[in-house]
Design goal:
Layout lengths: L2 E7 L14 E5 L3 E7 L13 H9 L2 E4 L6 H9 L11 H13 L4 H4 L4 H15 L8 H8 L5 E3 L3 H9 L3 H16 L6 H9 L2 H14 L1 H15 L1
Parallel strand pairs: 1-3, 1-4, 4-5
Antiparallel strand pairs: 2-3
Helix pairs in contact: 2-7, 3-8, 5-8, 10-11
Amino acid sequence: MNRGVLIAVLAVMSGSVAHAEPATWTLRDEDSAITLLGSVHVLPPDLDWRTARLSRVIAQADEIWFERTDDSGGAAFIAAGRSGTPLSSRLTTRDWARLQGHARRLGFDAGLLERFQPWLAALLLHYRAQEGAGLRHQSGVEPQIQALKPDVPHRALETGEELARTLGRVPARAQIRLLRTQLDALDQGALADRELLDAWAAGRLGPLMSHAVEQQSEAPEWHEAAVTQRNRRWA
């Protein structure tokens, strides 16, 4: 029986792509095909990334896999990210003042962030900044694929709880480094890199790989947990 499987994941990959569209990699045997599509979870509503070829791949899929499909991720993150140690006590006076300023600008209650571990505070600031820059979850790859293909199984490579536990195990010093990097980005107004999103939509891997290498060098322990270890499990 012929089987077509589409796996949409946010992952670090290498290789080449011949089409001006998001990069895909296809594995085939005599009766099956598995297509890997590099995913972006939040996108601007005006970014048109679906080509005719990609639409056919989605339409022909008998099974679709995402990083996760459950809706428990938000609750799992909050539960895993709570801390009995005030966040302000882990930061320098300057960094705490920067966090408070960015939280106010982004519509956050800094008192809420005070109760979280650094990794969750960093992610919440990042996601809110993306929203402020016009990126929307409902415009991301996964919701668009789900809307195009609601009649086939949608499966998950991990649950929200598994992801939250993975991120919560990152050493405290690496979490603080991640939060400080996020504050630096907000200081510079780096809310969303449209050039990077355009490179993804066109399948230009060079800028994407350079960005991944930069992230890895800035926060190696975080990258190991959030990207490398998860990629190994998915494989």
